[in-house]
């Protein structure tokens, strides 16, 4: 509750009694709570109106998603439909720099570990007949 401790709460109550007086304080509390209730009800009605205007495909729409941080976290980082992990891993320049350093120093580079889908293709390439084209590797393009 707004990080208010017991001593601060007692101080606020004493100040309210001193400022407004004990006879006006109950009416003031009722007015404030009624106003807060109306604001909350107005907000909920506005949200429902917006959801109904957007249509049935947006019935699960949450207004917290309009916050850019929440939107990015929910739609981009949790679901990797765009292949962001693959793109991020594609910017790994350590392997490229190691190849360049090996070429400059005249060393033979260690063979790279094949990806999960390529061992079958590697076996097929080893068994090629003269003049036969290698199989198409979609991951290599």
UniProtKB/TrEMBL annotation:
HAMAP family: TatB (MF_00237). Part of the twin-arginine translocation (Tat) system that transports large folded proteins containing a characteristic twin-arginine motif in their signal peptide across membranes. Together with TatC, TatB is part of a receptor directly interacting with Tat signal peptides. TatB may form an oligomeric binding site that transiently accommodates folded Tat precursor proteins before their translocation. This is Sec-independent protein translocase protein TatB. The Tat system comprises two distinct complexes: a TatABC complex, containing multiple copies of TatA, TatB and TatC subunits, and a separate TatA complex, containing only TatA subunits. Substrates initially bind to the TatABC complex, which probably triggers association of the separate TatA complex to form the active translocon. Belongs to the TatB family. The gene is tatB. InterPro entries: TatA/B/E (IPR003369), TatB (IPR018448). It is found in: Cell membrane; Membrane. The keyword 4Fe-4S does not apply. Residues 102-141 are annotated as: Disordered. Keywords: Cell membrane, Membrane, Protein transport, Translocation, Transmembrane, Transmembrane helix, Transport. Its main location: membrane. It comes from the Bacteria. It is a single-pass membrane protein. Coiled coil: none annotated.
